[in-house]
Design goal:
By secondary structure, this protein is α/β, with parallel strands linked by helices. 42% of the residues lie in helices and 12% in strands. Helix 2 crosses helix 3 and helix 2 packs across helix 8.
């Protein structure tokens, strides 16, 4: 059943985020500032291309972390890891990288548990999880294997399920870490300011009948990432050492824009920055001592603020909605 779609009016925050996305300045927290991450294990989803690739490369080149790339295409990801190893050797003068692949398809919830189980069979700790993978403005009507609107399913429901499987080990590991060393990073977007009121259009969350712009639908998924980050710690009071935060990586040239066409694609590309800059945003969220749980980060590594209606009540409602969706796949 559809209902009237309410999109809050633009706030000064929205205008500020847009301005900062176009004119972000230089990253201040970079490789020179990263901890060594000796003995740490990091997961980065969707790291075969774009910002995720740059995140994995930067971690491999400037830290001693063991890195797992969770991605869909085995051939593409294995080729990306070989490229990463070559670039790390050239750019960081580091001859060996500790990067591994786990196959997962976030558009198919049946693949999440096997992927998590494969990882858990190999590792006894997990320190940082970066939910980087996502899809942006696919053709209207695109769906996951389970029939969810593709962005909601890929950007929210599947990561929620994956996180559920990884939570026990993450929380157990956090007890041996210093406060803040264990983190969950949810990659959202300034597009969250175009989301429905409260983040999710619950009356018709798949937008089967409700008319909405592609950016409203994409914005729903990115707002939900913000809400997930906000509520994770409240859902896990036993995990006081874990920081859960969200971010907009920046206005970047990545494969996310592959569905844009014509003048829209032309104009958008004029305003975009290299994907590597977005890695600085994500790694600021994952590593900076400035970050606290619930924080929202913007490009290219600054603590900022999300929309006013993304409050605790909205976060709780979104969390319960997602919990309901993943039940059959636990």
């Amino acid at each position: 059943m559809s209902s009237h779609l309410v999109i809050p009016k633009s706030q000064w925050k929205d205008l500020w985020h847009t301005y900062n996305g176009i004119f972000p300045g230089k990253a201040q927290f970079t490789e020179k500032d990263y901890p060594t991450l000796d003995g740490k294990v990091v997961i980065v989803t969707g790291a075969s291309t774009g910002v995720g690739f740059e995140v994995a490369k930067s971690l491999a080149g400037s830290t001693n972390a063991k890195i797992y790339i969770f991605a869909r295409n085995k051939e593409k990801t294995e080729a990306a890891i070989k490229r990463l190893e070559l670039e790390v050797a050239q750019e960081y003068n580091k001859p060996k990288s500790d990067v591994h692949f786990i196959q997962i398809d976030l558009s198919d919830l049946t693949t999440i548990k096997p992927a998590a189980e494969e990882f858990l069979s190999k590792e006894k700790r997990i320190d940082i999880i970066i939910h980087n993978a996502g899809v942006m403005t696919p053709p209207l009507g695109s769906e996951t294997k389970q029939g969810y609107e593709l962005q909601l399913g890929t950007n929210n429901i599947a990561p929620h399920l994956l996180q559920r499987f990884l939570d026990p080990l993450l929380i157990e590991t956090s007890k041996t870490n210093k406060p803040g060393e264990s983190r969950i990073v949810w990659v959202a977007s300034t597009a969250s300011f175009h989301a429905p009121e409260g983040g999710i259009h619950y009356a018709d969350y798949n937008f089967k009948e409700t008319k909405a712009s592609p950016m409203n639908i994409y914005g729903q998924s990115k707002a939900t990432n913000v809400l997930q980050s906000r509520y994770w710690s409240k859902a896990h009071p036993e995990a006081a050492n874990v920081i859960s935060c969200s971010l907009c990586p920046g206005f970047l040239r990545t494969e996310l824009q592959r569905h844009l066409q014509g003048i829209e694609a032309f104009v958008i590309n004029l305003l975009l920055h290299p994907a590597r800059n977005g890695a600085y945003t994500e790694l600021f969220a994952a590593l900076s001592p400035e970050v606290k749980t619930g924080d929202y980060i913007e490009s290219f590594g600054k603590v900022s603020i999300a929309r006013d209606d993304f409050n605790d009540a909205a976060a709780k409602k979104a969390w319960e909605f997602l919990d309901e969706k993943i039940k059959p796949y636990l």
